[in-house]
Amino acid sequence: MLALNYKTILGVALPMMVTGFIQSIVLLTDASLIARYSTEAFAAVGNAGLMYVTLFMCLAGMADGAQIIIARRIGQNRPQLIGQVFGSTIWILMLLAIGLFVVLFFFMPNWINQYAEQKEIARLQGIYLGQRSYALFFAMITLSIQAFFLAEGKSWVVLVSALLTASSNALLDYVLIFGELGFPEMGIKGAALASTIADAIGMLSMVGFLIFSKEQKKYKLLAYFKIEINSIKEVLKVGSPLLLQGFSALATWTLFFTWLEQKSTFDLTVSQNIRSIYFLAFVPIWGFAGTTKTYISQYLGAKKIDQIPLIQRKIQLLTVAFMLCTFHGALLYPEILIRMVNPAEAYVAKSAAILELIAVSILLFGFISVYFQTIHGSGNTLHSMLIEFFTVGVYTIFCYLFIKVWMLDVYWIWTIEYIYFGVLGIISITYLRKVNWQNKQV
How far is residue 400 from each of residues 42, 234, 257, 269, measured CA to CA in Å? Predict the structure, then answer.
């Protein structure tokens, strides 16, 4: 079981934070390169990328459920059950990936073309998704293995895989978008293909780590690929609410950008600038989210409930401190950050002003996210799903009012972030204080 001190917490979180940072830099690089290729392609990649990530979150939510169960078994010292959970996770994610691919590849481009106001952007989104959808099959394997290593606290494996994925993605982006080193110029299709190939490289690295790891032999992870109905039910019970929760959160954000596209190309481009930089702020949140789930699940499994408040305080302090390191530019030099993504002068001032506006809301989220992740780690994923549903419901109502009814300036539209993070925080804290969540059996 993981020790409760800053050194061990950082040992688990730092590789995941570096992984998140690398992924954020890749997103910035992608956005910067495609923005220099064409404004329409930049807007299309932003919206189509969100659609892909929305469906990807279904896989990630189910993998999070597996991580919670494996961490709980480690805390309970029941290693003989871990292989079954891992094998069941592979089966579930494989079937899920097939279903999501069908939606993304065969149906989504037509749906986009039907509701989009900008037909050229809609066409480019279809091209992007046609290539990007194949990455779901690589993601199902990567996420299954990642869930196991994160539950073990072995997050450096995820870091190394992310480094390989990010470096190959950056190189392939440059080569395939602009047609360098003898390759044809592919534009937005090249951007999607580069990311998909990079995901395949990351998957192969994770498979290699698993095959040669001592944990694979210890838990006999590759010996449990027969269908275990009870184990599958267990993973579905914990993971399904997280799947729906992740999907609803990203789907709502996709709806937000869709309404902005219908409002004006200027508002959409400004908001895509913000979205590209936004992920820098989430670097510590992602790192400490996985760390929180692992710690909470392991300590509840070991019946050390009294240590939970100390876990929360330590992780909150570290989260906010690291957020100030990664996202201070939003307050001190927002225009420089914006120009890194999109140098077009028409969008810089408005984008920078919005970045300053939402900076405090993200710091707020860094603090309250630990409470929300505690609910996840406890195994009360159905309750966390209901909290998320209520929050995105409020968010969607205000999005509709701000964009469709009141038609506010894009600057004031982005104040919606304070509503989302505020509602999520209030409900999460109230839940932990009023509900007997510590005794959930997983």
Answer: 24, 38, 11, 19
Q: Tell me the per-residue pLDDT of 355-380, one tens digit each, with 9 for 90 and over.
A: 999 999 988 999 999 999 999 899 89
Q: Domain residue spans in the chain? A: 6-434
CA gyration radius for the chain?
21
DSSP state letters, 183-220: PPP-THHHHHHHHHHHHHHHHHHHHHHHHT-HHHHHHT
Q: Cα(413)–Cα(357) distance, rounded to whole angstroms?
A: 11
**How buried is residue 7: exposed, middle or buried, by Cβ count under 10 Å (0-12/13-18/19+)?**
exposed
Q: What CA–CA distance (Å, rounded) separates 168 from 31? A: 16
Q: Which SS3 state, helix, strand or coil, does residue 170 take?
A: helix
435 in helix, strand or coil? coil
CB burial of 46-61 (b: ≥16 within 10 Å; e: otherwise) equals bbbbbbbebbbbbbbb
| CB neighbour class for 220 (10 Å; exposed up to 12, middle 13-18, buried from 19) | middle
Q: Tell whether pTM > 0.90.
A: no
pLDDT at 22: 66
Structure tokens at 253: 């954000």
| Percent above pLDDT 70 for the chain | 98
Alpha helices by DSSP H, 133-264? 135-152, 156-178, 188-211, 214-219, 229-263
3-state helix, strand, coil split of the chain in percent (to 5) is: 85, 0, 15
Q: What is the pLDDT of residue 70?
A: 92
Of the CA atoms within 13 Å of residue 249, those in its CB half-sphere come to: 22
Q: 356, 353, 351, 427: which is closest to 385 by C-alpha?
A: 427
Cα separation, 19 vs 288, in Å, equals 12
DSSP 359-409: HHHHHHHHHHHHHHHHHHHTT-HHHHHHHHHHHHHHHHHHHHIIIIIS---
Q: What is the dihedral of CA 313, 318, 319, 320, to 10 degrees?
A: 90
